[in-house]
Hints:
eight-stranded mixed sheet; 26% helix
Amino acid sequence: MSIRKKSKPVRIKPSRPRQPSWLERRWAGMSAERRRTVVRAVVWVVMIAVLAEGVALGLRALERRILQSPPDNSPLTLVLPTIPAWMPRELGREIVESLVPPDVGFFDPRAVDEVNSRCRSNPWIRQVNRIQKVRHAGRPGGYVQLDLDFRRPVARVEDRQGGLHFVDNEGCVLPEHQVPRWVVTTPGHNGQPPTQTTYLPASPIPSDRGLAEIHYVTIRGVASKSPPVGQKWAGEDLMEGLKLVALVSTRSYANQIAEVDVRNHAGRISRNQPCLRMLARVARLAPTEIWFGRFPVDRNDYEVPTSRKMELLDYTAAVNGGRLIGLKGRIDLRYDDLWMDLDRTRVADTLTR
């Protein structure tokens, strides 16, 4: 027999009327004009939010489209507006072609960096001034414009095995097959100066009466080993030899100077012999040995000033009809007054290798 428990009666509380919220009270207290202003502000905020979301979605879609589109396969075009007067056009073209990176187009973000890297490793380029992308006007694409400084060959240096290497004025070794070897001089017209065009060894050489071989002084006796192409040849003896080459390069008799001898640099073979010597020689004419000595260290050095030595050499050429060759002797520039030994029938090598 089950016993049922009596349930207690449930009291139902009377419901209270809902109190309006703060926002409702605030809204109710606004004037009609104030309410319209608030509604307009809310509408503008919603519209701006929707527009911003639309822009974000559009940018993401554009990014996906760009990433999924095929890359620009057009080759990168490099433009070198000007080249030095001494440089053959073929050499300028070969240099520019060597700077074009493979599989890199104009719109590739790596384009400028890749070109700059190739410029830094090119033996002909001394300095990179500027590399700039330039867009075509009115059509897609563009080109890369270069502003570069180049190394000019000024001499050839004999190594310890007898090989010859072309260098610039800083001793940087340059590629032999790209060194200019021929020059054609074209007379000027209507008061204009003559123009010169240079050519590489393998270039087609025009049959022109103004054709001549470019003269390079040979520097002999450098003690250090020759470096690879594109690197600087170390050694004070070479630097002073190049300094001497630069001194005579502006003279009218520059093409008569065939050799600069630095074997006795700093008197390393004999203190009684000149540290630097030159040899003037052309064709079958008798050579003339020029004892230059050394470059003074400072004003207190007892060595004859370099300017005085060059004055004496200029005077010698002037009184001999512009020639240093054919004197059958030597010119010693180590004294304040000109000293010449013209009694010998040949120039003897007084140094012991």
